[in-house]
Amino acid sequence: MTPKTQTALVQSRASSTNFSLSFAIEPSCPLADSPSPYHVLVRVCAVSLNPSDWKAPKRFFVEGNGVGCDFCGFVEEAGPLSKIGPRARVCGAIIAMYKASDSHKGAFAQYTWADSRRLLRVPESWSAVQAAALGAVSWSTSGAAISDPEALGLAGLPSKPADKPIPVLVYGGATATGIMTTQLLKLSGYLPIAVCSPKSSALVKRCGAVGTASYLSSSIVQDIKKIAHGVPIRHAIDCVTTPESVSDCMSVIARTGGRYACLEVIPETCVLRRAVKVKVVMAYETENVDTDLNHPVYSRKANAELHGIVMTWTKDIQSLLDRGALIVKPLHELNEGFEGIIEGLDMLRRGDLQDRKLVAVVPS
């Protein structure tokens, strides 16, 4: 029987015990009805944390709304159009949580409703925290950046690799999204060149990078071009979006132009190039719903084409997962429960443990 209430982490300025984060543990949070015939009710057993989990509520706070995106859990109930039934172990992400009507959403909870069409079945060889780290934020963002005609517009997929291997720059190659993007580019027939720290170079190369450049290098642009062996670089994904990363990407992209995709609003001080097509990629745009945040960049209209693109990527990711072709960022397991999640969100805010993906077990 579906529970009427649950314990969940919610946005709250009134009840927060952390002056830097407006979150509180709500022990009697109402559990909404299923949003669609495709949705399944998932009993959450583990979650992973993303920077957006604390940044988005800070920018677009809604009192009482849920928190958290990436999760792993077991299906308790399935809608009539779901192809995934009860007891299946799945992972995915709850992404759009920016309106008052989204109060039922959020992965940092005992239960969450999730669209079964965007879920992955978790192999037995994967632990719950590994699967939560895979979630869906990183690979859906990567897939959107790679395939969206308004972003990089690359046609290759793991199921149908590109005919011609061309270099693609991944700035922030050791971030969770950078690690996933590097793998997906390589598996799609491209030649990823990653920018990361020297200590992360071996990991990023294991993910498929043909070479790495240190963001600490004073000759970073020349280092990247050298790895490309003189082949013009026309595509860049920026997973950090700082003034330095934007400048480096713009300098690396070929003189005749190219495409640049990033994951944050570009700082106002940055100088862009008219010959470079730019898109700020947001995972929630793949949900095919209007997201009005009263912001010129973060607000998005429903995008059926992009929704379809990520549905295709879901099938490819499932295939890669089944054959053991994916890895996730090295993990750091937090203290169990919602207190551990709040602690982890504060760690992300402070910039602690940037070389680890923070995960936590959610008690039933």
From TrEMBL:
SUPFAM superfamilies in the record: GroES-like, NAD(P)-binding Rossmann-fold domains
Record-linked Gene3D superfamilies: Medium-chain alcohol dehydrogenases, catalytic domain, NAD(P)-binding Rossmann-like Domain
Protein's UniProt keywords contain Oxidoreductase: yes
Pfam families documented for this protein: ADH_N
Any one GO molecular function term: nucleotide binding
The entry's keywords: Nucleotide-binding, Oxidoreductase
Domain Alcohol dehydrogenase-like N-terminal residues, every copy: 37-124
Family label: Belongs to the zinc-containing alcohol dehydrogenase family.
Alphabetized PANTHER family for the sequence: HYPOTHETICAL OXIDOREDUCTASE (EUROFUNG), TRANS-ENOYL REDUCTASE STHE
Protein name: Alcohol dehydrogenase-like N-terminal domain-containing protein
Gene source species: Ophiocordyceps sinensis
